[in-house]
Amino acid sequence: MKTHGSYPNIRLRRNRKSSWCRRLVSENNLSPNDLIWPIFIREGKNIKEPIDSLPGVYRYSLDKIETLIEKAIRKKIPMVALFPNTPKNKKNSKGSEALNKNNLICKALRLIKKNYNEIGLMCDVALDPYTDHGHDGILNKNGYVDNDKTVEILVKQSLLQAEMGCDVIAPSDMMDGRVGEIRKALDKNNFSLVQILSYAVKYASNFYGPFRDAVGSKISLKGDKKSYQMDFRNSKEALREISLDINEGADFVMVKPGMPYLDIIKLVKDNFKIPVFAYQVSGEYSLIKNGIKNNIINEDAIYESLIAFKRAGASGIVTYFADYIADKLK
């Protein structure tokens, strides 16, 4: 083999020779501005309750929330996502608690907005935290989720959350037509500046288990969600879902889960000029955390996993690592 003269003419390793050079030519970077921090809330006082299937993640009582918001602001995380753990005795077949102005989410929104305006608040619009059957909508007599009746309730839930101070309404239910109906209702009721982050591409995934533990819907879930969440064998169908939601008024769109669906994030980003968010879901988080705990991988895998979303084209990332990685990025 020749090892003298100009061989080879092009040496790509030259641009990798040192840290300063690698930083100079890096194509994708991560900052706290890319992060959305999910926070679980529950009833009670002075509670920080560990979630066994989500190591390092907790359910917090409302009196703990302001401390978390101040931490997020301090770390320059632009938005938090609030998720309720609704008590079993407040659940029913129609998810009525979703429309209670004194439910956990509404109380949290009022509490936060009273003192903090410099951070965005995102709330899911779906009924699964509130139904005794664990589904995202109303079941008909055959056990099928009734699309149109569910959308009627989701519109009311969206208006209530907007009234309480929610900045970003996030329909995560995968009902057809709900984005358009929510947008019309928001505009009609003087909430034209409230944004919609549509979970436009949400797959019927096996990676959601720990989240369902966290919000308390796993035990009660009857059957699966394959009749409304997307089939993970499909990719081009995602483009149809995105196109419909953009036309109905979505301001940003979500792909969920994240890492097993990087190809979908890229597909959406390449085809639509709209901010695309990724959700690094609970199962992904727990696999990485347990891998680190058992010395199978090291902590740098967290950063690597988040950069993967940026590389695929994600504008923002919902991740349970937000608190941790914001410190590291300093």
List the defining traits of the structure above:
about 20% strand, eight-stranded parallel barrel, 11 helices, TIM Barrel
Short synopsis of the structure:
The chain has 330 residues and is of the alpha/beta class.
What does this structure look like?
The chain is globular and about 80 Å long. It is an alpha/beta fold. Helix content is 36%, strand content 18%. It has one domain (31-328): Aldolase class I (TIM Barrel).
Question: In terms of topology, how is this protein built?
Answer:
Blueprint: H1 19-25, E1 35-42, E2 48-51, E3 54-61, H2 65-74, E4 79-84, H3 104-115, E5 120-125, H4 147-164, E6 168-171, H5 178-188, E7 195-202, H6 209-215, H7 236-248, E8 252-256, H8 262-271, E9 276-280, H9 282-293, H10 300-312, E10 316-319, H11 322-328
Parallel strand pairs: 1-3, 1-4, 1-10, 4-5, 5-6, 6-7, 7-8, 8-9, 9-10
Antiparallel strand pairs: 2-3
